[in-house]
Amino acid sequence: MLDRPRFAVLVVTSAVFLLAPAAALALEPAPTDWTPLAAVTEIQVLSENPDGTPHETTVWLAVVDGQGYVRTGNTSWYPNLERKPEIGVRVSGKEYAVRAEPIDDTAVREKVMAEFRAKYGWSDRMVGWLFPGNPHIVRLAPRS
What is the pLDDT of residues 107-123, one digit of tens each? Predict the structure, then answer.
């Protein structure tokens, strides 16, 4: 049988562990101007798998005209964005609530692709050779 002080410590410790994940889900509003984050090379996309489990993947970031963009090919996580576009992104340790908006506009796509080429150089060319095709370009928009 536990005495009262030990029981109190157990209850408080259990509450901290149970409440910590909920606190971790609190996301800051997305930046309205991504320009200050343009030098960041990698971010984590925080989405949800079809079974409800969390999915985290590291991707490159491009900033064009103050907007943040990511891109991907036919990956396992892209359908997560199509199904539930309200996602999170972790940038330099901060987590932001964003809406993943696919970009179809040719002019915007070209500008974003040019920024990826300029920012990532040789690595970007290698990705293009290894994974040819038309990648998905996604704007990281503020949630409504």
Answer: 999 999 999 999 998 88
